[in-house]
Amino acid sequence: MVYPHAYRTEHSETQTSNNAYGDYFLGSQSNQIKIQPQLLKILQTIDSMKEKLIENLGKAIKIKSIASDVHYRAEVKKMVTFMEDWLKELGMKYEVFNIGFYYVEGKKIRLPPVILATLGNDPNKKTLCAYGHLDVPHAEPSEWDTDPWNLTVKDGFLYGNGAGCGKGPLMCWLHALLAFKLNKMPLPVNFRFCIEMMQHKNSQGFLTFVNTKKQDFFNQIDFVAQVAGEWLGHKIPCIIYGTAGIVHMEITIEGDSSDSIKQDMENIFETIINARMEIVIPHYSDMVEQIGPDEEMIYANIREFDPKEIRESLPLFKRTWDRVRLLMHMWRLPSIFIDDIEECTCPNRDKKMIRRHFILKIVPRQTIDFTVEVVQKHIMSVIKKNNIKSKVNVKCVESVRPWVENHNSFNHQAAKRAFIQIYKVDPNLIREDTGRETTAIFDSALEKNLVILPIASKGSRLGRGNEHISTRCFQEATKMLAAYMFQLAQKPKKPRTVGAEK
């Protein structure tokens, strides 16, 4: 088990030096990287298009591409056409793929398509694949102070459904590519788009599709980039190098008495967590990686996270924790969320049934299958030990595997240098405490080095009411993506070898 804070275990070092923290920490002090002459032209072009960038985003926001609702199928098609027009304008070769069917209210409905596009196929250049999505969630008018389908500029922010999540990031990519075209400048890398339409519906059908394209479209890709997420604050950008996994489980108990089955439920959960909300299931944390000095320093170096802002919302025993310990528990260590007990209507009126959902956060090295097996075995042993006579059923409802990437990889270092070029500051290296289905899909199916690049500042309410992105972030992100492509081109293309490292 990991023992956070002092972040030392019986297996880790007790004294460290700068050398122990790796080359990244020795080389991360400079916040100035020279801008190449070609990149300077691109940045000047992007600056000159400031009003056009916002206008183009507004056109995308107007389309109600709620792909998870069959009543908006025409709008989804309109969104695909919108994207096709852009790809044609940029001279990209593309194809729109039907990826199967799903069921809605008992009806078999075709899934929204996936778009694959290519620009450049130079064998001497690295190949970057940018993932994006065009779907947006429902926008409840009561949750919005502005019209979610009409991009609103207010106090330096752009408000609209998809402005910071999905459409906004994709428009940043498109505008960066357009700047190269306007300058009649070849891209520093071969560029590929992979754009889906069901991100807000657990990316249904996407894994199967990616697997079918492993040997052709994705075969020669060197790097994958996903623009998503938020910064920790408003000034310092971030790079995401890891996400948690999610195992959503459900327990149902059926018996003759409401009181007895509720007591059975309480008895079971008393053996799952303790008073400090720590998971006490035997062997649950056996696979969690120990925390070493390198990782400790990453959390210590994070800026713009102030524990005072969340202190009052924490349980009493956590309120004395410092910022590093809080961050580790948010991102690095397993945790559990337990829902309230639901009373169910049973077809047999002589029987009573209750249900409870709980969500386990798992971290790298923990696997979904092992987690589910350990939890189920534990609950079965509790049933036997307590002689529970009620009928108990435990199942996994849904899951997302955890992901972590080497932040010293060339892809991540290229992204870091691009952020420094545009924002003049070292980005924070952060993780997320939730799962990302598409990230897990790319990681498992392609095994390519992936980086997540957040472009929205803290509090942008991505995917929720009043979603927004600052005009500065929107424009600077476009520049950063152009700089990122230049930085990726710094590494010469090498012939592929069997068994090459990720």
TrEMBL record:
<keyword id="KW-0479">Metal-binding</keyword>
<dbReference type="GO" id="GO:0046872">
    <property type="term" value="F:metal ion binding"/>
</dbReference>
<dbReference type="GO" id="GO:0008233">
    <property type="term" value="F:peptidase activity"/>
</dbReference>
<keyword id="KW-0378">Hydrolase</keyword>
<dbReference type="InterPro" id="IPR051458">
    <property type="entry name" value="Cyt/Met_Dipeptidase"/>
</dbReference>
<protein>
    <recommendedName>
        <fullName>Peptidase M20 dimerisation domain-containing protein</fullName>
    </recommendedName>
</protein>
<dbReference type="InterPro" id="IPR002933">
    <property type="entry name" value="Peptidase_M20"/>
</dbReference>
<dbReference type="GO" id="GO:0006508">
    <property type="term" value="P:proteolysis"/>
</dbReference>
<keyword id="KW-0645">Protease</keyword>
<dbReference type="Pfam" id="PF01546">
    <property type="entry name" value="Peptidase_M20"/>
</dbReference>
